[in-house]
Amino acid sequence: MIKRKDFVKTRNYLSALTIDLLIGFPFKFNNLMKNLIMGKNQIKIKNILVIKLDHIGDVLLMTPALGAIRKLYPEAHISCLIGNWAKEVLSRNRSIDEIILWDAPWHIRDSKKKWQCAELFRLIKNLRSKKYDLSLHFRADIRNLAIGYLVGAKRRVGYGRKGGGFFLTDNVPYPRQIHVIDEMLDVPAFLGAPKVNKKLDFSFSLEDENYAQALLGENSINPGKYPIIAINPFAGFPIKNLSLDKTEKLADILIKRYGAQIIFTGTSEYSCQLKAIELSLKKGSCLSLAGKTNLKQLAALLSMVDLLITVDSAPWHIASVVQIPVVILYSGSGSLTYWGPYQDKQYIIHNNLKCNPCYEQFSCPLGYKNCIESINLEEIVKQVDIVLARHVGRYTCKKHDEIC
């Protein structure tokens, strides 16, 4: 059932409620009759479609649920429908058999990219030919649910709490106030899947490792006397980004305080800004690798650093895979209960303001990003001191008494 508290904006709630009331009845009646005649529990599951069209971090956080699906249906053919941007996340995943790529227009961040309706029709035609027995939906999004219905999956299981639940044959009860990983695990659990390890499933090759080592070696970044600290100041949504000024000051402090070797990570979109910071700091102490690694190479690179400092972005989750300590500068645009730390070695810095969470993606509704900008450098450095002492140990601070 649709509830007002599941929506940030009233107009979205009213739209979803109207659609469910006006359109939902014939779908629900059709589902009921099919269940009475065929029996949904009698369907033999041989061919499964998992629909997860959102972003890199979201797909990575889904990997424990994929493991649960594989345990429940060890002989089934499991296909995953994801965006091109996330294909590396699942390219080595052993729980699935096939990756199907399609960039959903409602998740495309590149405003210049054109979308054609014909692409969707071709996708639906292709998926219908595969005759899926089961489609699984981890995101409560009416557009994704509609795709599951249009491809003709016999059984369609997921969350319909934000509208479009009539497209499903099985509405999974929505578990409030839990982490997103647990929410996604509840979908296969609804079907009877056993409990699984919540560890994210993502790996890199020896070739990726060699590439990362070469990048560091060519730029005289070496483990040893001084810590290697990676800083990722940018996310897919601008509202989460750390300012360039604060990024530069943070790197400068860590260089002076620890003699740290700083590595900036990020997409090619930010390569010019981060290169400018690199050139402004002490020569040889800082290196920008923005745009120079793919996801697996980034994972290999992060496995070689002592600490990652990042905003709420995919590198946070990649750091958890390679089990390095990470300090997260959390903006508060999303729920901390839902998106917060979920493993050891994850340390959050977050100022819980009255406006949190706002669920905005691009701009602050109040006109300023006080959530991320209110995190001061003293807080960050204090947490870095604690994390390095606890998890690394061999490095000593050059200046204990003041922020350099």
Strand order in the sheet with the most strands: 3-2-1-4-5-6
By secondary-structure content and strand pairing, the structural class works out as alpha/beta
Low-confidence region ranges = 400-404
Q: Note the main sheet.
A: 6 strands, parallel
Share of β-strand residues: 5-15%
CATH class of the largest domain: Alpha Beta
CATH architecture descriptor name of the largest domain? 3-Layer(aba) Sandwich
Query: What's the alpha carbon Rg, rounded to whole Å?
Result: 23 Å
List SSEs in N-to-C order.
HEHEHEHEHEEHHEHEHEHEHEHEHH
- Span between termini: 55 Å
H/I helix tally: 14
DSSP E strands, number: 12
Structure overview:
The protein is of the alpha/beta class and 404 residues long. The chain folds into 2 domains: 4-190, Rossmann fold (3-Layer(aba) Sandwich), CATH 3.40.50.2000; 206-392, Glycogen Phosphorylase B (Rossmann fold), CATH 3.40.50.2000. 40% of the residues lie in helices and 12% in strands. The protein has helices at 10-37, 56-72, 87-90, 117-128, 142-150, 180-190, 206-218, 244-258, 271-280, 295-302, 314-322, 336-339, 370-373, 377-392, and strands at 47-51, 77-82, 98-101, 134-137, 155-158, 170-171, 228-232, 261-264, 286-288, 307-311, 326-329, 346-349. The strands form 2 sheets. A 6-stranded parallel β-sheet has the order 3-2-1-4-5-6, covered by helices on one side. Helix 7 (206-218) crosses helix 10 (295-302). The longest helix is centred in the N-terminal third of the chain and has 28 residues, at 10-37. It starts with 9 loop residues before the first helix and ends in a 12-residue tail after the last helix.
